[in-house]
Structures are given as C-alpha cells and as structure tokens.
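Protein modeling request. Please complete all fields; requests missing the sequence field cannot be processed.
Requester role: graduate student
Desired output: 3D structure, token encoding
Chains: 1
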Amino acid sequence: ATEFGCQWLHVRDLETLDEKSERHFPTFVSLRGDMQEETTLFLLDLFQHYRSVLNLLDADYTFVNGPLARHYGLTPETEAWHRVEGLRTQGRGGILAFASTLSKQSGASRTSPILRGNWLSEVVLGEKLPRPPKDVPVLPDETPEGLTERQLIELHSSDERCAGCHRRIDPFGFALEGFDAIGRARQQDAAGLPIDTLTKLANGTEIAGLEGLRNYLV
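Delivered output (218 residues):
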C-alpha cells in the first residue's frame, strides 16, 4: 500500500511536503500526514479484501480520523481512525477526491487544473503525453485580480503550441475545481468568484464536477 500504491499515486512523500503557503493554508502541515495515511489505509483495505479495481474511482467509503473528517466537513464518530460510508452523497469517494492527491497536484497557494489533469491522464490512466515546449511562460503563484483560477488556465492554454495537450488534460482538472488546493470542498475560489466545474472533454463529452468525471471514467 505504501511502497507501491502511494508511490504510484505520487503521494508517498506527502507527509513531508513543505511547499504549501502557510498564509493561505495554515492547517496543511498538521494534516498532511493524515492525508497520506488515509491513502495507505484505503489501499491496504483494497488489497487485503480483494476489492474491485473500480473502487479506486467510485468507492463509497474511506478511512478518516477526527481531524481529517472535519477537514472534509464530516462529523467524526471518534478521533481515532475509522471507516466512514456514504461518501458519494457528501460529494466525495475514490482517489480523485482524496485530500492527498488533490493537495499534491496543486500549487502552493492555488489549485492547478493542469497538474491535476496531467496526473489523472498519465498516472491514473497511463497515457503518455508529449513534453511541453521549453519556452512556455510560468503561471503566477496567485491568480491575478479579476480572473478565476480556471480563466487563468484557459488563457495560458490558448497558446496553439500547447493547446493540443491542454485539450486532453485541462477538462479533467476543471472537473475537480470544486476542491481547493488542500482538498476541501468549495463553492467559491479565494477571490470569492464562483467555481465552474462544467467542462467538455477532448472527445466532446460534457461532464460536470467530480461525479460527472467519475461516471465517465468508470
């Protein structure tokens, strides 16, 4: 679960990740170890009980302790680690909604639909994407005033040299914009602008949010 599963999902070192802005996310350092432990316990249960591989995407359960449950907006049954059911009605379920994967594939102070989309495409689905051009401009750490995080990405991805790959990966990330850079559910971004998770995949399929993305992948 740790040496294969967590390395595969790129969260093996999350418990020591020191790249989040403390000003934006003061609770992250105290929770990062719990985020990684959830992933380990989930995978341990998957392997030990021979559960379907589809549970990675559409499991209706996970494992939390008190602090992580509250991070997810859940009411913990106990402060100790325990299994919780009915996550899909809470807008979660599966590895796409783990705080570990959502946090790792985000920036220091904002989400990154590009990182999340690339992770889903290459790591989870096993697709191979070409390397980006060397002279692509670096995105700012904080979203410029008046732009949503999604609009910033769309502006960046409009460069024709990059558009081909971004049409494949960005929609995956846009569907996960309902979670902030440390995996909390949200309706608005840091600037108070509404979150838009409706998007169109490269093949023309329209999806909205985690549920739409999960149903499509399953």
